[in-house]
């Protein structure tokens, strides 16, 4: 049994926790970061699988992600553009493939008009939403009572337009079916990226990657903290002073490995769906407990297929592909910087992912590669390296990409998500406004919570 004392104990060595720890340390406070895994980075994980460097978790950076871009610059990391030369491909409801350039999918003229109209309407609605407080919108409750699917059905009778607009939020971002989250949650997702149009524009939202992998951000942030980052320390218990009990303030945190940390403040810097796995003494306030039952992780398989060369480029294809009617609803050229080999990345989301976890691993692989071959031809069926990022199997994440509220939850409880409970603060990409569900949001939340604690220590 070991016991240590710090000003602030941070639970989770992801981008949020490590950002907070660095900010607090700069302000002269002593910190320790407790990480359950045997590595830092959380949902940022760059690894070599069968000789290929893969971004198992988050990887892309977009121009609006200013907080993350600042950190990347400050750490001296280099970025490069996602490959986007040539034609993208779209597969329509009848299975026909069309090549196209630009943002709007090559649909019939009537469907195109509907898609453009819906994008403009959603942009106008998003402009009315404060990403940091969507529940303050005058129609927040009404928008939170209707699913995004039902909202789209009320807006247009054009099924293909609905399927494509839903894709930008449901399959590509929240990774839940469009009937499982509200229109308000959809608007928050778009507002967090600046506009709905940004989500439609793959060249904007999936703009750059970091040379050598995005996990270098948490790795370098952790390096600055040296011995103050402790791995294999899963936190199981948080004892805190209840403001009403009159006991001494502060926290006592215990880990499964037998470490005890006493601190003035704690930051829980992990996915909010994991709070119920920790024992709080005393229990968290009733509304927090309810809130935690109304958020859940999305579900997506990120598929990596590496080939001896980027063969699709020879056909004038960019590697960018979309179809709400395909198992892999989107795919991109994900070739590493300076690599001769070619990598495709595909994504299988929500109900399609459910379906694939009902079959064997071999069948899953065969069906995913079949789907990629619909976009890029038969050669796509024969990668030299194949890997599925399955975050649902990760004990310390339990889904991907991030957490969102169920129907009605955002207007009911959203405002409470970030609120501190006595000495316990909360930070994670999953509670961000700008950068929500992204590394940028994690950095922003880490900074915010650190500034709140610094202010409290100076009060
Ligand atoms: P994160 O979950 O990363 O870190 C929390 C840490 O807490 C983890 O290390 C965990 O082990 C630890 N922990 C949990 N419980 C604990 C306990 N009880 N005790 C101790 N430690 C505990 N974003 C982006 O910007 N661009 C992108 O392209 C993508 N793509 C993408 C793909 C995939 C497959 C995933 C899974 C995610 C993305 N994302 C993304 C999202 C992005 O990766 C994510 O939003 C942030 O990395 C989250 O950072 P946090 O620090 O908030 O949580």
Q: Describe it for me?
A:
By secondary structure, the protein is an alpha/beta fold. 34% of the residues lie in helices and 23% in strands. The chain has 16 helices and 21 strands. The strands form 5 sheets. Strands 1, 2, 9, 10, 11, 12, 13 and 21 form an 8-stranded mixed beta sheet that branches. A hairpin with a 3-residue loop joins strand 11 and strand 12. It is globular and about 65 Å long. The two termini are 34 Å apart. The mean pLDDT is 97.
Primary descriptors:
single chain; alpha/beta; 21 strands; globular
Topology overview:
Layout: E1 2-11, H1 15-26, E2 31-34, E3 46-49, E4 52-55, H2 66-74, E5 79-81, E6 87-91, E7 97-100, H3 109-127, H4 140-145, H5 148-155, H6 159-174, H7 183-192, H8 196-200, H9 202-205, E8 208-210, H10 216-225, E9 229-230, E10 235-240, E11 251-255, E12 259-268, E13 279-281, H11 286-292, E14 295-297, E15 300-307, H12 311-314, E16 317-322, E17 330-333, E18 342-349, H13 350-356, H14 361-376, E19 385-390, E20 403-405, H15 409-413, E21 424-426, H16 439-458
This protein binds dihydroflavine-adenine dinucleotide.
Tell me, rounded to a whole number, the average pLDDT. Answer: 97
Number of helices: 16
Tell me the total number of β-strands. Answer: 21
Distance between termini?
34 Å
- Helix content class: 25-40%
Largest sheet: 8 strands, mixed
User: How does the overall form come out from the CA principal axes?
Assistant: globular
What proportion strand? Answer: 15-25%
Structural class: alpha/beta
- Contiguous runs where pLDDT drops below 50 for at least 5 residues: none
């Amino acid at each position: 049994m070991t016991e240590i004392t710090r000003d602030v104990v941070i639970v989770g060595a992801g981008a949020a926790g490590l950002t907070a720890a660095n900010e607090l340390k700069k302000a002269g406070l002593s910190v320790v970061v407790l990480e359950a895994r045997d590595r830092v980075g959380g949902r940022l994980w760059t690894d070599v699988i069968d000789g290929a460097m893969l971004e198992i978790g988050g990887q892309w950076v977009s121009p609006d992600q200013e907080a993350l871009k600042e950190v990347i610059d400050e750490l001296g990391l280099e970025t490069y553009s996602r490959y986007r030369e040539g034609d993208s491909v779209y597969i329509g409801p009848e299975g026909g493939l069309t090549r196209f350039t630009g943002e709007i999918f090559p649909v019939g003229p009537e469907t195109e008009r509907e898609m453009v109209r819906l994008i403009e309407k959603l942009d106008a609605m998003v402009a009315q939403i404060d990403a940091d407080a969507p529940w303050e919108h005058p129609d927040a409750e009404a928008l939170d009572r209707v699913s995004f699917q039902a909202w789209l059905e009320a807006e247009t009778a054009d099924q293909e337009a609905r399927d494509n607009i839903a894709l930008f939020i449901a399959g590509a971002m929240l990774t839940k079916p469009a009937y499982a989250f509200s229109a308000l949650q959809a608007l928050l997702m778009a507002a967090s990226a600046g506009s709905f149009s940004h989500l439609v524009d793959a060249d904007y939202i999936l703009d750059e990657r970091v040379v050598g992998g995005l996990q270098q951000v948490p790795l370098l942030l952790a390096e600055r903290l040296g011995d103050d980052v402790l791995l294999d320390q899963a936190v199981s218990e948080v004892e805190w002073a209840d403001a009403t009990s009159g006991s001494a303030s502060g926290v006592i945190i215990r880990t499964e490995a037998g470490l005890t940390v006493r601190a003035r403040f704690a930051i829980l810097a992990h996915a909010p769906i994991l709070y119920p796995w920790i024992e709080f003494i005393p229990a968290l306030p009733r509304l927090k407990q309810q809130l935690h039952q109304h958020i859940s992780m999305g579900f997506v398989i990120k598929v990596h297929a590496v080939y001896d060369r980027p063969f699709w480029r020879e056909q004038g294809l960019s590697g960018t592909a979309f179809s709400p009617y395909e198992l892999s609803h989107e795919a991109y050229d994900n070739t590493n910087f300076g690599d001769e080999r070619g990598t495709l990345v595909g994504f299988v989301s929500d109900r399609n992912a459910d379906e694939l976890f009902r079959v064997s691993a071999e069948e899953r692989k065969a069906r995913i590669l079949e789907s990629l071959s619909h976009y890029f031809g038969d050669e796509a069926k024969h990668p030299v390296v194949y890997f599925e990022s399955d975050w649902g199997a990760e004990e310390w994440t339990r889904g991907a990409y991030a957490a969102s509220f169920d129907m009605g939850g955002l207007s009911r409880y959203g405002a409470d998500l970030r609120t501190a409970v006595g000495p316990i603060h909360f930070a994670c990409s999953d509670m961000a406004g700008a950068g929500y569900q992204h590394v940028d949001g994690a950095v922003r939340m880490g900074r915010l919570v650190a500034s709140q604690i610094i202010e409290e220590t100076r009060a």
